[in-house]
Design brief:
Layout lengths: L6 E3 L2 E2 L5 H12 L4 E9 L4 E8 L1 H18 L15 E8 L5 H19 L3 E5 L10 H5 L6 H4 L21 E5 L4 E7 L4 H11 L9 E8 L4 E8 L7 H14 L4 E7 L11 H4 L11 H13 L1
Parallel strand pairs: 5-7, 6-7
Antiparallel strand pairs: 1-4, 1-5, 2-4, 2-5, 3-4, 8-10, 8-11, 9-10
Length: 307
């Protein structure tokens, strides 16, 4: 009998300052048999957590439904603030192929989850990237534009009617973007300045939508507690722009402004193929070990589960 496909999902939810809440939301997903929790990263400046899961389609869908339910209980966006843009309490849920799984299989799972989330939780759902139902919804930044605060006005326009769920925002949880995509690398570079304008200018210069590097999405953010700023990036196709290429471009742009790099960080897990030799040194990573490599983490948790 042919084995079911294995899929990765990396839900991002809007809680990064209350460790108990973040653990409870992640635990609601990772308690499902047949789903492996690979990583949980929380950022208080972004006020956001990134959970990495892997599993077969049916248990993974059950796990994600549990995560949404717990997030709706614990997060009220009317009282939420943070450096990272967000559309909802559960902001984004991507499905990513692993092994021999196809992107088409991930599209089917994204749409099945979206329909169930809309029905069960009265939560508006937008499908994005490969699962998008129209070209204008492929780009997550376009779906998220206006954020939670602008969502009610945005949804008054027919072109922003949700793919599933009600035609008005959830009062405390907004909406959720669910999609299917290739693996990406969440890569941040911290700069030794408190001038947010520098980070925003560099982000504008490197992101693809502004004429920068291919497959780069970038924002300039303030890390207020540290008194520095950050260029926060999603590298959506590391074969087109790898972390090392992005880092070197940012180094050059920062040097033109008399600013140096403090350090960089990879948020969550990263495919081995995206990394240069000796990644901690080459990428100036603040903290990194081989357990952050996706393939290593997945093999370890599956071995532990089998023992």
């Amino acid at each position: 009998m042919e084995e079911e496909p294995l899929i990765e999902s990396v839900p991002n939810f809007s809680e990064g300052r209350d460790p108990d809440a973040a653990r409870a939301i992640a635990g609601a997903a990772s308690s499902v048999e047949g789903v492996w929790r690979l990583d949980l990263s929380s950022d208080p400046d972004h006020n956001r957590s990134v959970l990495t899961l892997a599993g077969r389609p049916a248990p993974l869908r059950e796990a994600l439904l549990g995560l949404v339910a717990e997030a709706l209980r614990r997060i009220d966006l009317r009282r939420h603030s943070g450096g990272h843009p967000r559309l909802g309490a559960v902001d984004v849920v991507p499905f990513i192929p692993l092994g021999g799984t196809s992107l088409g299989e991930c599209v089917r799972e994204a749409r099945a989850l979206g329909e169930e989330v809309g029905r069960r939780h009265a939560l508006p759902v937008y499908l994005y990237e490969a699962a998008a139902t129209s070209p204008g919804r492929r780009n997550l930044a376009d779906v998220r534009r206006g954020q939670f605060e602008g969502l009610a006005e945005k949804m008054r326009h027919p072109e922003w009617k949700p793919d599933f769920g009600p035609s008005e925002p959830h009062p405390t949880a907004g909406a959720v973007a669910i999609g299917a995509r290739k693996p990406l690398v969440a890569f941040n570079v911290n700069l030794e300045t408190s001038d947010l304008g520098v980070a925003k200018a560099i982000a504008r210069a490197v992101r693809e939508s502004s004429g920068g590097m291919p497959a780069v999405k970038a924002l300039g953010l303030e890390l207020r507690e540290r008194g520095i700023v950050q260029v926060s990036m999603n590298l959506t196709d590391f074969e087109l722009t790898a972390p090392l290429a992005a880092l070197e471009r940012i180094r050059a742009l920062a040097a033109e402004r008399g600013v140096r790099i403090v350090e960089s960080e990879i948020v969550g897990l990263v495919p081995q193929a995206a990394l240069p030799p000796d990644p901690a040194r080459a990428l100036e990573l603040a903290a990194f070990d081989d357990s952050q490599i996706l393939e290593n983490r997945l093999n370890r948790v599956r071995r532990a589960d089998a023992s």
